[in-house]
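## retry 2 of 3
previous attempt timed out at serialization; input unchanged, resubmitting
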Amino acid sequence: MRAAVLTAYNSPLQLVELADPVPGPYEVLVRVMASGVNPLDIKIRHGQAAHAQVSPPAILGIDMAGVVQAVGSQVDRFRVGDEVFGMTGGVGGLQGSLAELVAVDAQLIAPKPAALSMVEAAAIPLGFITSWEGLVDRADVRAGQTVLVHGGAGGVGYLAVQLAIARGARVFATGSRASQDVIGRTGATPIDYTASTVDDYVGTYTGGEGFDIVVDNVGGATLDASFTAVKRYTGHVVSALGWGEHSLAPLSFRGATYSGVFTLMPLLTGDRRDHHGAVVAEAAALADAGKLVPRLHSTTYPLEAADEAHAVVENGAATGKVIVTPDR
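## retry succeeded, writing output
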């Protein structure tokens, strides 16, 4: 098979020929039709993501959609020819999806939604699983609640907005002035964070009470702002970027709660991988019901242009999820 290999940090990806992987008893061999590029991939390339546990040489690529080519002896959920998708590797020593073939733990994947193409399906797993773990597993989002999503036009936020709406919440999302129309098309109320203070939008949209759930997809000062935007006593802030130093005093003074999300953990530890598979199955159901649609970059890239795809993400030029199509 061909694969794009990171041979050293801060170096171009090398297109090489490697032996085809052989699936283990609990794995399936997938021909990769589409591989999603995430900001984490860029951090890994630069040696800035120790938590991802990647050392060159490595094949990156966390999100995947493709077709099952072979099935391990202990796998009974999938058959050759099945179209599948999931968040399957690229961290913790697991082969990523920037290759023509990959052997993946069958627990991590689900049937691809019929309503979506391979390219569309590969744009979903990491962002949706992160959103689900925050909104559903941690905060138990439900009908009638108010939800604020920071970064509503981003790779995670765009899916988080749709998930919260699908579960009956009233959703508001922050973004730049240029992203207001994109956010509005999801059904959320857009908030231009460059033109409104936290007090402004909390007052306007919640009467000063605060939001039931605040989803932080930005980190840093935005997480600090989340602590003052959440409802007193019952409010819940969730973040996948709760790094650095933060004062919990504003949150404590509101009597609210905080939960961190670390989406990579099942890939790194092997624990709860079946939950990842169950969550992407939920994503497929929502997509097939017309309630979940990814936002894609205007161009897809062949495997030999994986460096170009990474550059688009790194330079902030992406207009949606960037996808590489390894299959020839």
